[in-house]
Write a structure and sequence with these properties.
Length: 883
């Protein structure tokens, strides 16, 4: 097998640029070279080598040595330089690149090939001593950090001291001799920390770097990122070795990053930053404040330093034409890294750009309208989960704001929370249920867990393409970056700004759309659901087959659900209605009653309350199907648990406290999840379900009479295992219906069906469908009962299970298609065999999970039901599944 693929100088071994084989970076370097763009020559060691490296105890396959030598020869041939040649040395970068980009996870080594001899040659051949020694110190610093794993603070300290000693504030002020002196200091630090001199053999350097790239695949940071993003551990990373081009060769040289469209708002305008006389990492690390790419952006920001369009008009024009070529070629917004060496443009990377949900929507809709992509592609381009960002509130424009300062609007959306100053605290407080805003001078990959736990991120340093900004946009967290006036004292857990002090635990608000940072919590408003969002949803609705309903049990939830496009209620739980203060007493009297007459007396009090609940819900949902689940939880959930409460409850329910205690003890269950709950309540106390059914039908008729549009109640019996259970309950419901219809002289359409949430019910679905008119797959319980895993106790071991690949994803989040899914398929098939028009839906948490929705589409269910905020996600996912 071939391990090494060359690119550049008219060669493109990768053919069509296979990302799985070459990684994203390698495939696109190959792709750009193939369409004739200026790419420094190089080669890619393919991703399967990464797995081989680990399989063989962190060593390389035999033939790799010769293949790499061929790759180096390829670069030497094109550049007419020799690797390790003291007269005219070839320098390379060693870059990682997995199938999907993992920002900041894998480290790049630049300027590899420099040593005490080649640095002299480089100085001579370039005629620029300063450049040569700057490159060498960069190389030692990076190599020591990334490959040797030495403490990078020591190197930065040395640099800071060098600047201070000379009274400089910028790296660019240091001259050749300063750098030369620093190189000597760096080498001494390496000797001290590593116990050996800095490697002088360029081949040792190269193999060390290649090993380090593979090594970084198993770093903690990379593992965390993979876990958060569902990236399999066996994909591996590729290694790209590429001739260096130099952005640090003086004033006609530069380096930059750019997007072909605005990644925050989605506008069709170039967007980016560049730095003159700098190397790649400088822009991302926020060492100097980068300059704008376009004149328009510079003017809009009121910034002074010239934009690239103004400072280097010719190279800029060439870059702009490359943008157009790339967008047309890849048919997507591109995120580009480039370098200018003495006036010549070089392309170093392109990939589909990460973008906010807002930008994803706008770009997809715009590109479809421009004819660059089809409407179907536009639908497929937007990640349904990303819509979440758009559906959440933004700051109320009318609210009073106590603005502390303003930074860059790095990732849109607003968030309030306690200020915290380190990622571990952010994670801890978030786990305890607090909203937190992570405040850092700047973030690094070590902050991933804190950023994930935080509602929002605020940094004092770094531009729009800084680590914080890129990662926050990817995660959908609001972020304000580069708020330069913040004086953060992380050690004391506070920041100062404008004479004020904000300490850990104080509430602050950030607006990632405007860049504002405010003291206190600022009220928010609901998002705008028209515009591009509306357009894409319309396109999606035209393509999907699955209906989308909502899990909703309050009028507010129902209204939200309808605004988001729900086509009915898939699950209205009724137990929450019983917990209200005004009702709980009657519920308890019902539970504590010693006979049926006593229970009925209490239920009579609950009937009007329950009816009014349904009236409100049916008014919102008039004309639409509403699945209402009759009482499900074990009765003891309604009784007090704390000794302190018994007195009070006994008094309110008008019984003596000993009876209450005895009854509570009687109702105690060892395993309530499998105990006296669901239809077992209805079987033992039919009058409870009778009251609920009556409330449903009375409410339906009331709403039909008032508004003319009757809802279609679908009465759902929970936790059925056998045909007979459902049959008994259906008799109760039908009888209540007949009674109400006779009293009111009016009927409404309704169905009686069941939740399929026990394996037995799924298997016996054929006979259960003789009675049930619909099935709703209650996949939360069905997952618990099929896997034998308690949802409430699973947290302790499920993470490990997912890490070890036992389940690919948390089965309570994404359906276990192989196991639970097979039961659903069986039930659907057997149910339909008995009753061809049986209505089939899913109402577990999984109804809002795109992967699970794809499964529901594949087996032809009629609808999915999701929580209100997930309805648009489900609509889009359903359309994607249908395409
Ligand atoms: P990341 O995946 O973190 O973006 P890259 O491999 O893209 O890492 O490298 C980061 C930066 O290093 C690039 O944006 C580029 O500016 C610089 N770089 C990488 N390779 C070269 C090269 N051959 N010549 C000049 N600069 C390079
Ligand atoms: Mg990097
Ligand atoms: Mg890059």
């Amino acid at each position: 097998t071939q391990y090494v693929y060359r690119f550049g100088g008219g060669v493109s071994d990768g053919g069509q640029g296979d990302k799985n084989l070459l990684g994203g970076k390698g495939a696109n370097l190959d792709g750009m070279a193939a369409i004739g763009l200026p790419v420094p020559p190089g080669f890619t060691i393919s991703t399967p080598v990464c797995a081989l490296y680990y399989d063989e105890g962190e060593s390389f396959p035999d033939s790799l040595k010769t293949e790499v030598a061929t790759g180096v020869a390829h670069i030497e041939g094109i550049t007419a330089k020799k690797f390790g040649d003291p007269a005219d040395p070839l320098l390379v970068s060693v870059r990682s690149g997995a199938r999907v980009s993992m920002p900041g996870m894998m480290d790049t080594v630049l300027n590899l090939g420099l040593n005490d001899a080649t640095v002299v040659g480089l100085a001579q051949i370039s005629g620029d001593d300063r450049f040569a020694w700057d490159s060498y110190r960069r190389f030692i610093q990076m190599y020591s950090d990334v490959v040797l794993g030495l403490d990078h603070d020591r190197f930065e300290e040395a640099l800071e001291i060098a600047k201070e000693d000379n009274g400089f504030s910028l790296d660019t002020e240091l001259s050749a001799s300063h750098w030369q002196k620093l190189v000597a200091e760096y080498k001494a630090i390496v000797q001290e920390l590593w116990g050996k001199p800095f490697p002088q053999d360029v081949h040792d350097q190269l193999w060390g770097a290649i090993g380090a790239v593979f090594g970084s695949w198993q770093s903690e940071r990379a593992k965390v990122y993979r876990r958060l993003n569902d990236i399999p551990g066996d994909w591996g990373t590729a290694v790209n070795v590429q001739a260096m081009v130099f952005g640090n060769m003086g004033e006609t040289s530069a380096t930059g990053v750019a997007f072909t469209r605005d990644p925050a708002k989605g506008d069709n305008a170039y967007y980016g930053e560049f730095l003159i006389n700098a190397q790649g990492e400088d822009v991302v690390a926020g060492i100097r404040t980068p300059q704008y790419l376009t004149r328009a952006a510079r003017e809009a920001a009121g910034a002074k330093p010239l934009s690239m369009e103004e400072a280097m008009p010719e190279v800029y024009a060439q870059l702009a034409s490359v943008f157009e070529t790339l967008e047309t070629h890849y048919r997507d917004m591109q995120d580009i890294e480039f370098t200018v060496e003495r006036g010549k443009l070089w392309m170093l990377q392109t990939r589909s750009g990460k973008r906010t949900a807002k930008a994803a929507l706008k770009i997809a809709v715009d590109m479809a309208n421009e004819g660059l992509i089809t409407q179907e592609e536009a639908i497929l381009r937007v990640d349904p989960m990303a819509l979440d960002q758009l559906l959440h509130p933004t700051l109320d424009p009318k609210a009073v704001r106590d603005v502390l300062t303003k930074g860059l609007p790095a990732s849109p959306g607003a968030a309030s929370g306690y200020a915290v100053f380190d990622s571990d605290t952010a994670e801890k407080r978030a786990a305890a249920g607090d909203s937190v805003i992570l405040v850092r001078v700047e973030t690094s990959p070590e902050d991933i867990h804190g950023m994930h736990a935080a509602r929002g991120i605020l940094t004092a340093r770094g531009g729009m393409t800084s680590h914080a900004a890129v990662v926050a946009r990817g995660m959908g967290r609001p972020c304000v970056s580069g708020a330069g006036t913040l004086a953060i004292v992380a050690k004391e857990k506070l920041f100062r700004v404008g004479g004020r002090e904000v300490r850990e635990g104080d509430t602050i608000t950030i607006d990632g759309t405007t860049g504002e940072v405010m003291f206190g919590a600022v009220p928010t408003v609901q998002p705008e659901l028209s515009g591009d969002f509306g357009t894409l949803m319309l396109w999606a609705d035209a393509k999907r087959r699955l209906k989308v309903r909502a899990n909703a049990e309050t009028p507010l939830d129902c209204r939200t659900a309808r605004e988001f496009g729900a086509e009915g209620i898939g699950l209205c739980r009724t137990e929450h209605m019983f917990f209200e203060q005004s009702r709980i007493t009657a519920v308890r009297q019902m539970i504590l009653a010693s006979d049926e007459a006593g229970r009925r007396a209490a239920l009579d009090k609950l009937l009007p309350e329950q009816r009014s609940d349904f009236v409100e819900i049916f008014e919102v949902m008039a004309g639409l199907p509403c699945t209402i689940r009759l009482l499900d939880p074990p009765l003891h959930e309604f009784l007090p648990h704390e000794e302190a409460e018994f007195e009070e409850v006994a008094k309110a329910a008008d019984i003596d406290v000993d009876t209450l205690r005895r009854r509570a003890a009687e109702l105690h269950e060892f395993n309530p999840m499998l105990g006296h709950r669901g239809c077992r309540l209805g079987v033992t106390y039919p009058e409870i379900y009778e009251m609920q059914a009556r409330a449903i039908f009375e409410a339906a008729i009331e709403v039909a009479e008032r508004s003319g549009a009757a809802p279609i109640p679908e009465v759902m019996i929970p936790l059925v295992a056998t045909r007979r259970e459902l049959e008994l309950m259906k008799i109760v419901v039908d009888k209540a219906a007949q009674a109400v219809f006779a009293e009111k002289g009016r009927t409404v359409e309704y169905l009686v069906g069941t939740m399929i949430e026990l394996p037995r019910a799924a298997l016996r679905a054929g006979e259960i469908a003789e009675v049930g008119e619909f099935f709703s797959f209650g996949t939360n319980d069905l997952t618990q009962t099929t896997l034998g895993v308690s949802r409430d106790d699973a947290a302790r071991f499920l993470t490990t299970y997912v890490e070890k690949g036992i389940y690919a994803r948390d089965p309570f989040v994404s359906l276990d298609v192989e196991g639970v899914g097979e039961l659903i398929s069986i039930a659907a098939e057997r149910g339909r065999a008995t009753r061809p028009d049986i209505k089939l839906g899913i109402c577990g948490e999984h109804g809002g999970d795109p992967a699970s929705i794809a499964f529901c589409e594949a087996i032809g269910l009629d609808y999915v039901s999701a929580s209100p905020y997930r309805v648009p996600i489900a609509r889009l996912a359903a359309a994607q599944a249908a395409l």
